[in-house]
Amino acid sequence: MTNDTGCYTLLYDHECPFCRLEVAWLLRRRGDRLRAVDIAAADFDAARYGLTQEAVERQLHGVRPDGSVTVGMESVRASYEAAGVGWMMAWTAWPGFRQLADLGYRIFARYRVPMGRLFGRSCETDACAIPPSQRRGDAAG
Q1: For residue 119, with 0-12 CB atoms within 10 Å meaning exposed, 13-18 middle and 19 or more buried, which class applies?
Q2: Which whole number is the average pLDDT over 120-139?
Q3: What are the pLDDT digits (tens) for 72-129?
Q4: Burial class (CB in 10 A: 0-12, 13-18, 19+), 11
Q5: What is the per-residue pLDDT for 1?
Q6: CB-CB contact of 71 with 59 (8 Å)
Q7: Could you give the CA distance from residue 82 to residue 50 in angstroms, rounded to a whole number?
Q8: Taking the model in full, what pTM does it have?
Q9: Torsion of the alpha carbons at 119, 29, 45 and 105, rounded to the nearest 10
Q10: What is the per-residue DSSP string for the chain?
Q11: pLDDT given at position 73
């Protein structure tokens, strides 16, 4: 499988408040080299990337222009690199730090939904959504 966009494609959960903010920040840097695909969208098909929905919900995935798939912290590093700010995450690949960063990411990925609740997100399923009263443009908010 090849990535027909010519840029790094990040498969992220737009329902996750942390993921949404970070991806928006990255896209503002170099949107021409980074593409973001929402795994929570109704038309998302993980099989298109040779993956399962369960896998992409468990950890961040990405697809390089050559079609190779990244998982977890490797996807974070690749997305920062594509956005032109790879230097910010370079240390997470250094010997000794890599294992700690990868472990820290796996812990975050596992608990991102409960952590989202702590930040005012209502989570009725495994996805976090902004409560209606906190949505941008909501007159009640």
Answers
A1: exposed
A2: 43
A3: 999 999 999 999 999 999 999 999 999 999 999 999 888 887 887 776 554 444 444 4
A4: buried
A5: 53
A6: yes
A7: 22
A8: 0.78
A9: -50
A10: ---TTSSEEEEE-TTSHHHHHHHHHHHHHHTTTEEEEETTSTT--GGGGT--HHHHHHS-EEE-TTS-EEETHHHHHHHHHHTT-GGGTGGGGSTTHHHHHHHHHHHHHHHHHHHHHHTT-B-SSSS-B--GGGSTT-TT-
A11: 96
Type of residue at 90: A
Q: What are the backbone angles phi and psi of residue 62, rounded to the nearest 5°?
A: -150, 165
Distance CA 56, CA 73 (A): 13
DSSP 109-125: HHHHHHHHHHTT-B-SS
